[in-house]
């Protein structure tokens, strides 16, 4: 058991990080019933914007850039955590505008459009930031290692897991304890009724999409110090995110969180004993769960079902 | 070349053998390419070379280092211009057993190159008395190495021999550096491609690794080569060339010289010229003369072992500290010759490119 415990702990941290990745994706699917395949691109854009914020970007050689780079890394990192998701949200708004003609039509249109956007975004990233690997600096206080139970663990990974818990809690708070959250949930349940009650569905969708995009960008900033940053990192993200919402049930917030933890544990524990199967384990989990119930663990019927 | 304009076509193999095969087919049948040059993964190179052999099109493999490329997957039309896993393992294993200890753990990317390299290392471990405590297989495309690194801590080896390539290696380096595990156990990382580490923090470049060339070698011609690169590519983010660029340059140069020497673009005539390729150390900007092995079609060249240069100061490009350089015959992959069966000239379609 003592051999397994560190791997279970690792699995839980991996699961929390997967939950962070899947949060924005599940919000958009839940309300708008759009499978946003550009989620990975938003993840990447958030991270790339953060790299530019921390490193000074295009202003690095100016007087402002010199002043900015003189600030402590922790200050610039906090700024990146705010500005990166904001930038991703702006891009999300633009994507939502492009998606409007597809509302009410077959889900395939939205899926194809967002897939195309993801390809364009990846090429834009190559043009703007280059094709090489980049790294995102983090403050020393959350970097490095610590020893627990005779094993070395990454400080940053535990910070990232804690951040994921905080993000999950805040999103839950928004959805369950605010009027805006109530409107979002009502819109996911019956968008026509929400519209009939006088709420601006267009603004609601814009807001949710921007929020989902911001969460994707935030996930990118948090994950990249672990995964590295390259232009095609989006594809490493969108597949697990999609898989998690299917396992958890399309549109279910807690389903996505629970599914992410399951996936994390599957990947973590198989990594200990049959590592060659660690990436495959999430697909085996998908087959096992969807094989018993096609709507996943907590899913409900959605407009995506034909 | 021979009074004819050289035209180039570029296509992306997407690091996928199926795409590589399709792309090679298209280049040959629709773009009328007479020669293929590619710095691709070993799986892709194998797929490309099978198609190339069907048409007799010469293919220069400039950057995949699976021993099988010049072993069981060799072809009459294919020439490998990179060192392979066996070359680098031969340069590293004996020294590492003596210096660090006999308990070895193999960390292996779960695909062709990884397995071939691990097998080559295993054979050398047996030869020098090392014991394999565990092998951890890591699927290609693994972003998170936490489980593997926990297992490594639990196994407590003296040495980790890592056959992890491409993006996976970048992620692994980042995560090992975060845990501070780069110093102990000792890491033997096989070949390190320059584009995969250029610009990364120096602490990510732990352990000992191999390369075929370095931009800061104190050898004749190197400084001028680097200066010409910088003049030709002033806007590139990679301010100095690395092994991948070097291999591609040398391969292309060798091909053009072979065509010129043959006096024809007939593929068989050019193949025969390439099989006789010999260049001095000075021409190669390496420590030893290089030659093409006509039996396996792998270039035999100097193999360097390096580690991170922690004393580079402000020169962020000077990332490597060269530890040793091995002559080609010392690190030659002897098993490749036994496994390689080149198609005969008669069995290779002939044409004028």
What is the terminal-to-terminal distance of chain A? 46 Å
Shape of chain B: globular
Radius of gyration of chain A: 20 Å
Enumerate the strands of the largest sheet of chain A in spatial order, edge to edge or round the barrel: 1-2
Largest interface by residue count? A-B, 38 and 35 residues
Indicate the low-confidence ranges of chain A by residue numbers.
Answer: none
**Number of spatially distinct domains of chain B:** 2
* Helix share bin of chain B: 25-40%
Mean pLDDT of chain B: 93
Strand order of the largest sheet of chain B: 5-4-6-7-8-12-13
**Count of discrete domains of chain A:** 1
- Helical run tally of chain B: 12
Helical run tally of chain A: 12
CATH topology of chain A: ABC transporter involved in vitamin B12 uptake, BtuC
Order of helices and strands of chain B: HEHEEHEHEHEHEHEHHHEHEEEEH
Determine and state the CATH class of chain A: Mainly Alpha
